[in-house]
Amino acid sequence: MNVKMKCKLDYSKEIRWERNFLKDRDKIYIDVGCYTLSTVLVTLVLWPSANPKCMPRLRYKKYLTSVLAVVFMVVTDLLLNIYHYHMDDWIIGSFFDTYTLFTIYMFLPIPYILPSLVLGISVSVIYTSYFVLYLASKHRYEISNVAHLNYLSVEISHQFCVNLYGAFFRIMREIIVRSSFLDRHQYVMEDIWLRSAREQEKVFLHSILPPQISQPIQEDIRNRIKFSEKHRNTPINIRRDRIMAIQIHPDVSILYADIVNYTYLTTTLTVKQLISLLHELYARFDLAASRYTVQRIKFLGDCYYCVAGLTRPDPDHAKCCLDFGLCMIDNIREVRAKEKLDIDIRVGVHSGALCAGVLGAAKLQYDIWGSDVVIANRLEGTGLPGHIHTSERTLQMIIEPRYEVQPGTEKARNDPFLQKHNVITYLIPFNVRPRTIPDLDIDHIKIIDSETELKKQSSIGLELREEFKKMPVGPISVKENFKEVFQLWGKDKDKERIRARPVIGIYLLHFRDPRLEYNYMHQPDYMLKYSMLLAWVFGLNLCYIQYVHDSGLVKNGVIVDLVVMLSLTVLLFLTWYKKLCFLRYSTQDHKYSRISCCLFRVAESIQRSLIKRIGIYMYTIISYFSIITVMLMDCDREEYEVVHIESKLYHYEPDMNMCFHPWLLTNMVCLIIGMSLIFTRIPFMMKVVVSTLEAITYMIILFFQFEYIVHHSLTTNPYFEAEYAHCLLVIITLLSLYFKERQTEFNNKINYKWREELLKKQHDAFIADQSITILLHNILPAHVANVYLTSLAKHELYYEDYAMVAVMFASLHNFQLDLPNLRVLNEIISEFDRILSYYRDDYLVEKIKIVGCTYMAACGLDLRFSSVISQERSTHESVIQEVLRARRSISVLRKDNYASSEKKEEVVFVLTTFALDLMRTLWTCNNDYRNVPVDRDVFTADMSIGISSGEVMAGVVGASQVHYDIWGNAVNMASRMDSTGLAGQIQVTEETAEMLRKYGLECNYRGMTFVKGRGILPTYFVGIDENYEFKYIYESRHHNLSDNSDSQHGSSEKNA
User: Fold this and answer.
1) pLDDT digits (tens, 9 = 90+) for 214-260
2) What's the CA gap between 315 and 102, in Å, rounded?
3) Distance (Å, whole) CA 676 – CA 694
4) Cα dihedral sign for 646, 648, 652, 655?
5) Dihedral-angle region of residue 180 (phi above 0 means left; psi in -120 to 50 means alpha; beta otherwise)
6) Where are the transmembrane segments (predicted)?
7) Per-residue b/e over 212-225, b at no fewer than 16 CB within 10 Å?
8) Environment class of residue 147 by beta-carbon count within 10 Å: exposed (0-12), middle (13-18) or buried (19+)?
9) N or C: which end of the chain has fewer CB within 10 A?
């Protein structure tokens, strides 16, 4: 019995070496070789565009390389189509048209939209012409057939939508790129301005305070501004809390300098000449002080005093002061020769210890106190013009003396204060120019400032170019930005730069800061109308394809198309109505109806609401898929399979309308995926999830629901199954658009982070600007500060001449300026400043300076001086009462209206009222501190006040520091009225007394008083009773009349 063994024949390995098999398989290598060659050529052509170092500067080279890359792609695709058609009689489709269009609009280095649009339309025309003209007569299209003509129109509409999608993408990217440049430019400029503002703020603050004291005050001002922003109903309180800002410096040198014949200058020179002279002198002194590291403290009219070794320890501070004093003498001699004026200077220098700091709560001014400060002042006062009057202690600190030393003056030896402290003095005459700095005048300073400004502008340009290189545009910068944002922090060398970049998640592209992510997602979408326009066009295209497919005979399809297009049209109208109205009525004043206003509000609510935008987005995607669903439901698979098999067996042409065309459906899905990803201001992860679900759902339908139909459709390569070709097109579309949308989202988030930082920079700049304004108002009067901020440059001369200004000097007596007493002085000055705040709204009393225990103020320096009391302001009650009472008094006395000349003279009465308030405040302070367990002598201080009025000159002088001061005979006389006055009295000149009498105030004649520089003059005391109230003339007369009537009545009764 023969037993047959069963076995399986496996000839798969051997057949690979058969000639016929190899001949058939060699055909695939032609396709692979063409694709590889095309890839290599495209890469070589585009490589220079990806490498800026290799890219020529000529712009047309970018267009040339882009066109060559497109030509290689299109020619490869069409040549393979032609080859397989003629050699193997295979008709294949192409998805390279869609991929090529995506490449043109998204990946090629074409800088402008129009060339990309022209190139994209050209590619569409080439592909359409090839399949229509070359293949239409035999296989794919028959122009004479209406159905085939409809499919041709569908193909054209698809090409139109892909080009429209690409153009929309380029427009959006153009907007993002230009917005990025503008935002970055503004960001850099704001950053530069902020640094400049902070530097200016520091300069202004350091002009009145050294750094060790200015820092806490600067932070306090910024904190108060931020607090006022959070509590907008609360005004900014510029006054500081009463913090003791005083430091002890045990080893410094003090210099006092006084211009000789200054009083003569004030009476002989014009306003401009005097201010120009002082400005030039003090500017020279400031430059020399900067060279010799000497800290100028302040001006006192014609007095200039400074300290060496104050801001930082300096072992040569004594030598610096002496050299600076000689330089001052040299400078004033140069000016004397130049201007032909009889002026000179006395200089006093002493070394020792002092207390330095800030007193008061307004008009912060840095000052020094101590017995050694008084010694330096006395040395200046007892010195000789053209000499430095120094103490023995200062000379002992000179390591290598090189000065000619002479004995001190007789006045110094007889000075009680110098004798009390056993000060031995010496004179150093000016013989040799000690100057080691070049001659600089104000013009040279301005030239230096101009050169500095040019360097600053040049640095701004360089910084802008460097910042633009960091922007996330272009292939190289995108790569670098992704690398910077997503790399590990610890491995980067420049950690500060990385920390300045937005922190974005590597997978979800989300801000790691939830607050930032929330604010980003809830931005208003002002580009929504363009997204809706694109969505409407895509919807119209899908409806047209569905209409052509169903020949307009399916009732469900018509209803779905009408509902979709009607709803999309309504949304399009809502989003575009506002822009259409703007285009129509932007050049004219038009009143809109209630309906228009309602439509505006609806559109704005959609733009601002993320939930509403997401709803519109999801409705649009669902509408698209509803159209596709109608097409799928209209297809009978079993009938199509039977008809298709019979057509192959019996060789007849089947009905093409029996079922959907797979490539049309695939193209529709690709458009929907593109629309899902490009919709603006929708969360990125939502768009990715939606588009991915669309692709997966469609591929499931391809492989499981309509496998037979898709399998027997055209493929893109003879060796590539059709269903895989469809899937490949969907995947390529999804990935290409995903990565481009990822880059767009990345750029958007970087731009948003920049805008957030820009807002922060602007806010910081605003605070710095406010801080500068507050600091300037603490240095200058309000109107001068505004002029200085708007029109005055540094070192530029500013002066004013006033016809009527009241000046006040108020000095504390029996008050020792040592450290324990400075705290009490700070409390008293702060209380004075509190009273001053009541006079700054309507009456504009300005605090000028504090000199030791002397408080100097003026009224009438601001042209906005009010002649009408503002009842709405919280003005101090006594001010209102006294001014109204004085005006009633002058009306009674004059029995006519309030004249304009008397309005100007009212500054005298207002300042006198302020002086009386200071006396009341001092009395209150003495009572409040009566029970404090400290030295009783501190609180027994009394105060004398001197007031004068008349023409005053004011101006900003100096080079290194902003300093505002006033000069004139009224200033000198007010100082003399104070120094020659009595404690508890307000002493005024005869002219001022006459003005006060017009307002009904009693002014009691004191007698003839010797005034330095003016001789013997009559002076007066303002009438004040024991309750610190003014004595009025008409009240005294009324009181006298009442006394007389009472006495007469008593005498008549006695006689009766």
Assistant:
1) 777 777 777 777 777 776 655 554 444 555 678 889 999 999 999 99
2) 75
3) 9
4) positive
5) alpha
6) 28-47, 63-83, 90-108, 114-136, 530-547, 559-577, 614-633, 660-679, 688-710, 722-739
7) ebbeebbeebbebb
8) middle
9) N
* 717 bridge partner residues: 720
- The amino acid that residue 891 corresponds to is S
Stretch (H or E) spanning 602: helix 594-608
Place of tokens 């001086």: 865
Q: How confident is the model at residue 407 (pLDDT cuts 50, 70, 90)?
A: very high
Question: What is the secondary structure of 462-516 as a DSSP string?
Answer: HHHHHHHHTSS-SHHHHHHHHHHHHS-GGG-S-HHHHHTS--B-TTT--BSSHHH
Q: Give which of 996, 860, 976, 838 is closest to 918, Cα–Cα.
A: 838
What pLDDT is stored for residue 491 in this prediction?
43
What's the CA gap between 40 and 44, in Å, rounded?
A: 6
511, 749 contact by CB (below 8 A): yes
Task: Decide: residue 679, CB within 10 A, 0-12 exposed, 13-18 middle, 19+ buried.
Answer: buried
Determine the topology of domain 793-1042 in CATH. Alpha-Beta Plaits (3.30.70)
User: How many helices and strands in the chain, by DSSP H and E?
Assistant: 34, 16
d(CA 685, CA 708): 34
pLDDT tens-place string over residues 548-586: 876 545 667 788 999 999 999 999 999 999 999 998 888
Long-range Cβ contact pairs of 596-603 (< 8 A, separation 24 or more): 599/574, 602/574, 603/574, 603/575, 603/577, 603/578
pLDDT in tens, 996-1017: 998 889 999 999 998 877 789 9
Residue 306 and residue 295 in contact, taking contact as beta carbons nearer than 8 Å: yes
* Distance separating alpha carbons of residues 329 and 431, to the nearest angstrom: 10
Residue 529 to residue 536: CA distance in whole angstroms: 10
Closest CA to 98 of 627, 669, 531: 669
- Alpha helices (H) along 340-472: 371-381, 392-396, 410-413, 416-420, 442-469
Distance in angstroms (rounded) separating the CA atoms of residues 1039 and 475: 96
- List helix spans (H) across 340-437: 371-381, 392-396, 410-413, 416-420
Find out whether 654 and 672 touch, Cβ atoms under 8 Å. Answer: no
Q: Which helix (H) or strand (E) holds 1007?
A: strand 1003-1011
* Dist. CA 124–CA 156, nearest whole Å: 8
pLDDT > 70 fraction of the chain, expressed in percent and rounded: 75
Q: Is the pLDDT of residue 351 over 90?
A: yes
Q: What residues contact 614, with CB distance under 8 A and at least 6 apart?
A: 682, 683, 686
At the topology level of CATH, where does 239-438 sit?
Alpha-Beta Plaits (3.30.70)
User: Coil, strand, or helix at residue 318?
Assistant: helix
Residues facing 948 on adjacent strands: 807
645-670 b/e with 16+ CB inside 10 Å = b? Answer: eeeeeeeeeeeeeebbbbbbbbbbbb
Instruction: Tell me how far apart the alpha carbons of residues 160 and 667 are, in angstroms, rounded to a whole number.
Output: 12
- What's the pTM? 0.67
* Per-residue pLDDT, 479: 47
* Chain position carrying tokens 């200004």: 805
On the CB side of 885, CA atoms within 13 Å amount to 19
Per the listing, tokens 């023969």 go with: 2
**Bridge-based pairing state of the strands 387-391 and 344-358:** parallel
How far apart CA 408 and CA 389 sit, in angstroms, is 7
Distance of alpha carbon 1044 from alpha carbon 568, whole angstroms: 101
What does the pLDDT look like over 817-866, one tens digit per residue? 777 788 888 888 888 888 888 886 666 788 888 888 899 999 988 765 43
**Parallel, antiparallel or unpaired: strands 303-308 and 294-300:** antiparallel
